[in-house]
Write a structure and sequence with these properties.
This protein is mainly alpha-helical. It has helices spanning 37-42, 44-56, 74-84, 92-97, 100-103, 113-136, 143-168, 199-218, 232-245, 249-259, 270-273, 290-293, 300-304, 322-325, 371-383, 390-393, 433-446, 450-461, 474-488, 495-502, 533-537, 543-548, and strands at residues 89-90, 181-184, 196-198, 284-288, 319-320, 428-432, 506-508, 527-529. Strands 1-5 form a two-stranded antiparallel sheet. The relative contact order is 0.14.
């Protein structure tokens, strides 16, 4: 399969500039069809084709980087950077194939693909959005529809700059009130040389783009047709995320609230939460569409679904940090989706088996060393098949491609994410209602609106745990909101970014033989990653950008 961005229309800017120098470090992006800004400007059909391409660039095939990691756009950014590099998610796949992702020691190495991938991906989106924005105002027919497309392009450009700030900018408290220089601010098509702009300048563009987008959306009679397109609620969600990054809590609370007002995106039920996260439901605000994706080996589900194609490689598909699991309240539906010591039944094994090195591998946390344990996780896996429909979903942790061989299950293996075809292709939630609820609750805590925060926690947990109560206040209430966010959004790409924003360390503690109070993390992934480490968790601008873009004053990179 060729490594192409399979888009129906966007311009040659993708192959120029930032992808020209040291291209082996970058995404190899060869559009199937090149549409210039003139083409966009001439016809509504050209503008719509370009918008379809822009949306599709968020869930399509990108170059095969080192170790066959097969990035696919937004999902890869969320999983690699938001979860694998965080505290609450352990992946033996990365431990074997790219351990440096989990050891967090490459932030200052600007020659690695870890620095290059999100930079190239986000500026890809920005370049496409800029091409649309340059051309769409010149179309004199279907003007209202063209304005809707303009608002969508502004929203995606704002989202891309938000992602760049998450990775390449300092925390707000380390930014000298936003005056630190962080990114080239490109607002026109092409990849001309461009100096760095301040964090404030980037934030101002995001705010302006979203103000304009929301105003257009609110006064427009058009609606999106697909879950992968942004709309006014997605724009408000991006606004809330960005405002939290800036610690602009009043605005964040309002935008998060407005994104769900009038009952939109109701919190999914317990049954829906256990439904496989493979297809969108009413809570999903934004995500890829598996019917449109069709990227096979590159799909999130192939690698990260519990019934995905690559389970036969005995890599697992992610486990929950047991220290977080222990904090999930008893009776909470979210605890039902992980294979942990409390899932054992009968008298064949005791809980201590999870800390027995003859049963649980100290280097991987794989639980293949005892037939009784295998029988336990086989039973458990069948018990959590969504809707009990084995014909649709198959058996978890069993190969979908190579003869249905039995595969490894790990201490804390997840059964939250499932796949829906031979590869395990699934949808992926770029944004959903629970995230906005928890964002509103967190901002409400900072704003002194404690009753609002508690009411939101009760709203969420009415669909998670029938016994949930919350009488906390002050710092304890804020800590509860953060904990609920870690539990609810586990595996959805938020943990690393949240910990950076919270100015809190990443702490992973070790599994210890015979110690049932210890964790489920191998010694090789134990870490105490302080907020000051690796430049304050700030990725370096890739070398390929610096070599191409002479307008960047490199003395500013060490500020």
């Amino acid at each position: 399969m060729k490594n192409k961005i399979l888009i129906s229309g966007i311009a040659a800017v993708l192959t120029a500039g930032m992808f020209a120098s040291c291209s082996s470090d970058y995404l190899q992006v060869d559009p199937v069809t090149e549409v210039s800004s003139a083409t966009v400007q001439n016809t509504p059909e050209g503008a719509q084709s370009a918008m379809n391409g822009l949306c599709g660039a968020m869930f399509t095939i990108y170059s095969d980087f080192a170790n066959n990691l097969l990035p696919n756009g937004e999902g890869t950014l969320m999983i690699f950077y938001g979860d694998v590099m965080g505290q609450d998610y352990f992946s033996y796949f990365f431990e074997k194939r790219a351990p440096f992702v989990m050891t967090l020691n490459r932030f200052r190495d600007n020659q690695t693909w870890l620095c290059a991938y999100p930079w190239g991906y986000c500026y890809n989106l920005i370049a496409q959005a800029n091409t649309i924005l340059q051309g769409v105002d010149g179309i004199t027919t279907e003007v209202e529809k063209m304005q809707f497309i303009k608002a969508q392009a502004l929203t995606i450009r704002a989202h891309a700059y938000f992602r760049l700030l998450q990775l390449y900018a300092p925390r707000w408290e380390d930014s000298r009130n936003g005056e630190k220089m962080v990114l080239p601010l490109r607002t026109d098509p092409g990849t001309s040389e461009m100096p760095l702009s301040s964090m404030n300048d980037v934030l101002a563009l995001i705010y302006s783009d979203l103000d304009t987008a929301i105003e257009i959306f609110e006064n427009n009679s058009n609606y999106r047709n697909n879950i992968f397109e942004p709309d006014e609620d997605v724009a408000r969600g991006v606004y809330a995320r960005t405002a939290m990054l800036k610690h602009d809590y009043v605005l964040a609370e309002q935008m998060a609230h407005d994104s769900r007002k009038n009952g939109r995106y109701p919190i999914m039920s317990k049954e829906e939460y256990k439904g496989g996260f493979a297809e969108p439901n009413d809570e999903w605000m934004w995500g890829n569409d598996p019917d449109k994706e069709r990227v096979g080996y590159w799909s999130n589900g192939a690698w990260y679904a519990c019934n995905g194609a690559y389970i036969d490689w005995n890599n697992g598909c992610g486990t929950i940090n047991y220290e977080l699991y222990r904090q999930i309240p008893k009776g909470d539906v979210r605890a039902e989706l992980f294979f942990t010591p409390d899932k054992l039944t009968g008298n064949q094994l005791s809980i201590a088996a999870f800390w027995n090195d003859k049963i649980c591998s100290p280097s991987s946390m794989s639980l293949v060393g005892n037939i009784n344990m295998q029988n336990q996780y086989r039973r458990f896996g069948r018990s959590v098949i969504p809707d009990g429909n084995q014909t649709k979903w198959g058996i978890p942790y069993q190969s979908r491609l190579q003869g249905h061989a039995e595969c490894s299950v790990f201490f804390g293996s997840q059964y939250k994410f499932w796949g829906i075809d031979d590869y395990g292709t699934d949808s992926w939630p770029f944004m959903r209602g629970a995230e906005m609820l928890l964002t509103e609750a967190e901002a409400a805590c900072y704003n002194g609106h404690e009753e609002v925060a508690k009411a939101l926690l009760l709203e969420l947990n009415a669909k998670r745990n029938d016994n949930y109560t919350c009488n906390k206040s002050g710092d304890a209430l804020l800590a509860e909101v953060k904990l609920q966010r870690r539990i609810e959004l586990w595996g959805e790409g938020h943990n690393f970014f949240d910990l950076k924003r919270w100015n809190e360390p990443i702490v992973r503690t070790a599994w210890k033989k015979g110690d049932i109070t210890s964790n489920n993390i191998p010694q090789s992934n134990v870490i105490n990653f302080l907020p000051t480490d690796q430049g304050g968790w700030r990725w370096m601008i890739p070398l390929s950008e610096l070599q191409y873009n002479a307008a960047i004053d490199q003395s500013l990179l060490v500020q």
